[in-house]
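In this notebook, the sequence line spells out the residues, with the fold written below as integer tokens. This is how one looks.
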Amino acid sequence: MSALLKDRVWIMLSEIAKRGVYPLHASRLGVFRMPVDLTDWSDISSISNDLKSSGFKMDAYADRVYATYKWTEKGLDPLTGETLSADLNVTVEAVTGEVIDLIYQIKPLEFFGDCYWVKNYRQKADHNAKIVIDTIIRNTKIGDKLVAHYQKAEKLSLERAIKRLEELTPLAQNPKVRSAAAIPPPAGPASSPKLVQPTITVAPKARAAAAGADTISLSGTG
């Protein structure tokens, strides 16, 4: 999804706000709405299971799934020259339902303490959030439903729909491989063997004896 979120203006939509998503003070808000349905609880819980190997901290509440990406920044204090480190993170929230909202907030650097020496924090947090978003879409049920949406709404072939999903999520970690091979149709009920009908040959009728030219007919009175 990073291909769509690149250098965009972040706004607050009233439709999103009604669902309980409110930006924090001094936070940068990223929202992307996907036209896929995810309401079954088994599908929602499968998102966390599919992302266990991605290294994200997963959490869930009601119809929402949270994936947190953590990283450590290291640098030198410009005043003392001392080596410093800071543990930072960014969280992506997936709000499921008739549509899916993928939301992240870049908190102000002051939230993590006195980390004034960290450089390019917002750019790094934005990039890491896009990694999480791409991984969520590519490696979970959301990606399967998005491929089906492309096939139905845009009349794309399965191969082209998968290719479009891959182009949309270039930052996904350990990307899931989807096969474009056509699924064979289910086998129908076995047809009952045809009974071999016996062949009846009608014997030709005996040739009637016909009077020929060389036939002698005897007649008389006695």
